[in-house]
Amino acid sequence: MFVDIYDQLYISYASVVSTLGVLFNAFLLFLIFFKSPPCLTPYTVFLANTSITQLLYSICFLLTVPRVISINLRIVNIYLGFSQFLGHWWSYMIFVTMLHFAVNSFLSIMLSMVFRAISLKTLRFPTSGAFTMCILAYLIPFSMVVSIRDIEITSNFTINSNYTLWQLENLDKYRTVLSTLWVACCVSLLCIPIYSVMFYCRYRILKMLERPGYMFNTTTTLQIKRLVKALTVQSMIPVFTLFPASLIFLSTQFHVIETTKFGYIIISLLSLSPTIDPLVTIYYVQPYRKYIVDLLWSEERPLISPFLSNNDPRFYRSRSNSVLMMRNTHFV
Length: 332
What we know:
The protein is mainly α. The chain has 13 helices and 3 strands. Strand 1 and strand 2 form a beta hairpin.
């Protein structure tokens, strides 16, 4: 197994980011399944869908650690992870599976915004409808995996060197190198309709909440706006991850960027989302944030409890805030 100093740094980065992605999303799933109030039931379906998808993405990234070199509408992948020992076909299938999880996570965030808009319009949204939306949306990225089972790939050193214009040093020393024709288009192009639907729904939600005489009280309206803000922040993460990766990919196609060192950056940027997204969700969804705050506060409580009586209102302030938030059971 050949690796240079840049490969070693990239593998270290992938190990850290993937491990954090698995841990953060696993913890978020624990909060979703065990700490979610009944009022969040339809919404937790979309949260769980996003979290499971990003957890699996992190695992695939750790297995493949792909270095992506794209020149002249060709993509040459060098696999530095464990999948290289599984052979060419498995390495490529795990790589495409990783990309399809990335697409599904973006779709899931869009579905969360669509759900919020529909629930405000119809005043109800069944949990079965949330499951149906997730399953139907998943057919889009799943078709990516199914359609490439028999795609033409090559691991021939001469062909791959021609594809990279002989710019890549030591290409013959890597264990698993594959060239493909199409991969990046699905990930990049699908974001256009996803973002269009997402921001249209956001616009409709905010317009409905600003309508005079709308039926929700101030507390519920603030909670809805907070969740919409969380979805907006999550949707902005790809602006700093996916879009730069796509820009680098296109720049290499038109020879604006010539160096092959950018092959480390494309997937590195894309893989930041599964690490950041669960932190955004935990921060903006109040029951989850409250659980963490209470957990940390309960560890400090023995230090301050001798100075406060059990009837002191400060003991119950956090609980009162959470009860106030949960009174409207379908829209928080």
